[in-house]
Amino acid sequence: MAQTDEISPAKRAAARIDARLAITGAVGHLFERLAKEGGLNQSRIADRLGLSRARISKILSNPGNWTLDTVGDLLAAMDGRITRVDVENILDVPPSNYVHQWLVEAGQKLLPVSPPKDPVPAALNSLKTKWVETTP
User: Fold this and answer.
1) What is the tally of structural domains in the chain?
2) Is the Cα dihedral 43, 45, 19, 33 positive or negative?
3) Domain for residue 1, yes or no?
4) Is the pTM of this model over 0.70?
5) Does 19 reside within a domain?
6) Residue 33 covered by a domain
7) Confidence of residue 63 (pLDDT cuts 50, 70, 90)
8) Which of 44, 57, 32, 34 is nearest to 128 (CA)?
């Protein structure tokens, strides 16, 4: 019988979480910065997209369900754009025992993921992300 190279559900889940956190964190960081500068709020985004403020509030409070179209719409409303995307092969990154704090709190166990390089990227800081070391 031929051996398959199929990835595990846990590895797929970890990759999805990493991608979601990177993208939603970057968009959230831009929104927070523009809001602090006084030029943007949820009502302004709603007006620019032709949506209700309640709908924008719901979208911003639940970034886990954003589609790429949602990300594009939000960036357009903020006059933002993606200028750089870095993707690394996980085999090039030293392994570690770092996982996202909410996984620990939820009692879930996924594959260990590499810690952020700096150690917490600015995009993740905007989400109040906390990385913790776990024991295997």
Assistant:
1) 1
2) negative
3) no
4) no
5) yes
6) yes
7) confident
8) 32
